[in-house]
Amino acid sequence: MTRRAMVTRLNQIDGHLRSVLNLPRPAKATTLEQAIANSAATTEEVLFGDDGEGIALMPAVAQRLLMASLQAQVEARLISGDDSGATARSVIDSIRRLKAAPSLQALERQICAELCHTIGFSSAVLSSIAPDKFIPVTSHGTRGTGKPVPRNAAAAEQDCLRLRRIGHAGGRELPATDGFREILGAADYLVAPIVVESKAVALVHMSRARGAPSPTATSTPWDCCSRCTHSPTSGC
């Protein structure tokens, strides 16, 4: 996507989101940097406004627009080539290097740490996927890694796997899973699949973004290249 097309996309999403939430609309951005700043200001206002309601009480259409805005902000930063975009790209590259890494556990910790320190979340956890449960492997900013969470008790995570896209748990439409809510220390959170060759091999949970763009996607977050042949437990 070109810079001009991304400016248009950010302006449209930001305008729709502010309209749905009855927020005043700023002048349309004419540069990519301005569009990113406008969108970031909107998401920060929505997530951390004075009313304290956060995303849990938003109408479903506003939640979807918020997710789209966060995704577009990440893509825009990658296009703009600024430091935040470069670091966001390094998170994705880290996942793809897991198999060759001398210390898999170290890189897993790095992923969660970068999601918090660079992307802007306060807590993150990476979980492997077993036939009957989700197994937290490593985390950052959480209350420990927690215990395995039965899949039949995790509607949000099952929905994330089925749709192959990021989901918001803890809103009106989809309840947060107790096990992950306790690990993250948050009433609501985002959950995204790590996909290798059209197969989800792990889940990443993130909560409480602090205003920085979040690593969200509309279909297959962190989707690895089609040539990947790594095992599901090794990443890409």
Extended strand count:
6
Strand line-up of the largest beta sheet: 3-2-1-6-5-4
How many helical stretches? 7
Terminal CA distance reads 25 Å
Structural class of the helix and strand makeup? Answer: alpha+beta
Helix content, binned percent: 40-55%
Instruction: Characterize the overall form.
Output: globular
The H/E string reads HHHHHEEEHEHEE
List its salient traits.
globular; 236 residues; 16% strand; 6-stranded antiparallel beta sheet; 7 helices; Beta-Lactamase; alpha+beta; 2 domains
Describe the structure.
The protein has seven helices and six strands. It has helices at 3-20, 32-48, 60-80, 83-96, 104-119, 155-163, 178-184, and strands at 123-129, 133-140, 149-150, 167-169, 189-196, 199-207. Helix 1 runs antiparallel to helix 3. Residues 94-101 and 209-236 have low confidence and may be disordered.
Summed up, what is this model?
With 236 residues, the protein is an alpha+beta fold. The chain is built from seven helices and six strands. It has a six-stranded antiparallel beta sheet with strand order 3-2-1-6-5-4.
Topology:
Blueprint: H1 3-20, H2 32-48, H3 60-80, H4 83-96, H5 104-119, E1 123-129, E2 133-140, E3 149-150, H6 155-163, E4 167-169, H7 178-184, E5 189-196, E6 199-207
Helix pairs in contact: 1-2, 1-3, 2-3, 3-4, 4-5
